[in-house]
Amino acid sequence: MQMCVIFMSKIIVDTRESYWVKKNLMKLGTQVIERTISPADYVFSEECAVERKEFKDFLSSIYDGRLFEQTQRLSAVYENAYLVVEGAVAQGLNEIPNPLVFWGALAKVVSERNISIIFTLNENHTAMFLHSLAKKLQEKNKKKIVVRHKPKFYTLRQKQLFAVQSLPNIGSRRAENLLKRFRSVRNVFTASVKDLLSIEGLGKKTVSKIKELLDTKYPGLEM
After folding, report:
1. Which fold has domain 10-139?
2. Which of 26, 71, 124, 169 could covalently link to 206 via disulfide, CB atoms 3.0 to 4.6 Å apart?
3. Residue 19: CB partners within 8 Å, gap ≥ 6?
4. Using one digit for the tens of pLDDT, what is the confidence trace for 128-150?
């Protein structure tokens, strides 16, 4: 009796990615391998990866510079890179004062980074696209594919910038300004409210969010 072998595609997914995307991928029959990865949110092979952004985060990342830094690193590591913009784009564009900013950012990513842009309605449709892409890329290979994450070597300077960029509303430009002003990551994290407000572009709301993140006790310590 001849046995039928069912092909199962696999995707390496960043542990911080959407629970619902991962759940829907598994429902569709894709094997999800969770790891902490950077750059990219989803890795299909050594040559292919996807970065996912919700529409609001996409807009935010344009203004703080994260989008262009992230896509630069993505295209430097992966030959075939995709950017998924998720959400009600048409509605969102009607609500922003200058839609040209959105289209200009997309044009820059496509022309300068050579990254393909995919629009999806929600997490369910994102999962369907990712599942279809993995199946298309991996099923055509007769041999079993080993999905690997291709790491990138980061200099100490880059690691310092990434550490500061983990703070709320801090993109690459602000991170560099903060490090130039305070001279080390530790000094940035321990800077006073007054000193942070002295940095051009940092308002009270952003500084408040930074201090809240750094000073709030970790939940559960009172127990």
Report:
1. Rossmann fold (3.40.50)
2. 169
3. none
4. 999 999 988 887 664 444 444 44
